[in-house]
Fold:
Amino acid sequence: MRIAGNLDRQRPEDNLARNNALGLSVPLNPTGVKANDGSQEIASVRFPIRMKVTLPYLILALVIAMAGAYIISQIVFDTIEERFTNQLIETGKIAAEWMVKEEGELLETLRLVAHTDGTETAIKNSDAEALREIAYPILLNASVDALEIVNLNGESVLSLRHRDGGLLEEYDVSRGDLSLQDWEIVNLVQNQEIDNLGDKYADIARAVWGDYLYVSGPVLNQNQELVGVILVGDSLSKIAKEVRETTLSQVTLYDLMGREITTTFIESGSQLNPESIKEIVSRQDEESFTQEFSVANIAYQGIYSPLEVRSGRDVGIIATSLAKTFLVRASNATRLQVFGFVTTAFLFIIAIGMFVADRFTKPLLKVVDASSKVASGNLNVSVAPKGNDEVTALAESFNQMVASLQRSKADLIRAHEDTIQAYDRTIEGWCKALELRDNVTEGHTQRVTELTMQIARQMGISEQELIHVRRGALMHDIGKMGIPDSILKKPGSLDDDEWIEMRKHPVYAYEMLNRISYLAPALAIPYCHHEKWDGSGYPRGIVSEDIPLEARIFAIADVWDALRSDRPYRKALPASTALNYIEENRGTHFDPNVVDAFLIVYEESLAGQTESRSSVSI
Structure:
């Protein structure tokens, strides 16, 4: 539907005049007061909400700033050496905890590979490709560097090792390595030894392909028999880098002989003397071992602790080092002070904020509640304005808006009803014109529409849906507008080609109506009323409940009216003959449930039980 006039060229005064004609509210001017048209003015704002909210928080901010200045001064006057030592000890603890976390993640990856369906069979069959397809996604997801799968002979069935400097998904694949059979953690699993933590073991391996932390575990069959050993590992250089990124310290790993394995220092090659290693290992539960040294003319202090794996076994030494010029963070005691103060201040601010907010949000909540009622269609609401701020102005504006909506609602309803009625009359006009063109028995469309509505009601279709059912029934043959007169008005029988064209009319109906949003919900009958329950209908040959219910209902009404009406080639059939035809085609042409509903409507019509149904002769 087109709207007369050029909206882009409408003037503001034109819009204002149109709004007044429809009963819409007059907009507020910039001061918040309604234009002077003789109506009641909205009170001006004397104490804005912004000031009500801002003032308490401004005071709180000043209090927090003064307290924060005090705490910062305490941090500055803390002993630098004490804070440095505390920071160094904390980095050592984090490093030790990181190794425990790393071992746990490797164990989880090992369990995933070992318990995945197909692992046991692939090891038995030495099927490296099958093992790669199982293990590769797991390794990639867990970002694990290496996987070794060993058979009972100690031979590698599959080795997956992340390529140095390669992308995340780049792994080198090999098999047949015999060097793993001499590893202690492989032999422990092969001998099925169990310690206090179970049948899994961990160790540092210094192999040809690099230095790794490996975790080993068994692969068992359904009878709990050992079929192989799985080792999952991460590069020690990668672990050292991750610890450095977490602690912001330099990290070095040594073996138990004091030889450096890997370090994050630029310069490498440091060693620990045997006496230091002995002291680190023997006194690990009593005190931390520290020592000072320099690298590249920078003074460092390091803290050393044993690198423990499962069962508390020491397999190396881990050292974390901080430069003596390192910008240390606050001590734990200071952190607790800051945390306690911030928490208290936060709770205090929340309490004050809730108190202040409650004072001015209650009127807003009333407006919100009233707005919800209006949104749900209830226009018989209003808000009692109290006070002299923006909320009061909002309440008064809301009341005026509701009053305007009440005035315009009736006009909109009437306009909508007139539009719907005009649309329906247009549809009826189309159908009448089609009847005249198709030479169909006069009144056919109205009769099948009324009968379809009666059956649909019997089957429990809602009144809202019945609106679309009625429109669909009225337009059931609208697609015949696309059929040439030479075929549509042919007095004799149609040949095969003409039948092919005639059977396109449901498709033409779909193409005509599917883009009209108003009529799209009514398309089921025009498009599908020639479909049959057994799938032998057209245009799509769909079956049973794939056919829309409205179309299944209409199919019976259409056939019934055709049988009971005079045609050029025959007289109307008796009701008994037509009923027999309907029954004979139950389950082939017609939905059995719809047939049952039709029979009920037919019997009620005969008995004259309801005026609405007896008004149509079926």
User: Anything to note?
Assistant: The two ends are 39 Å apart (CA to CA).
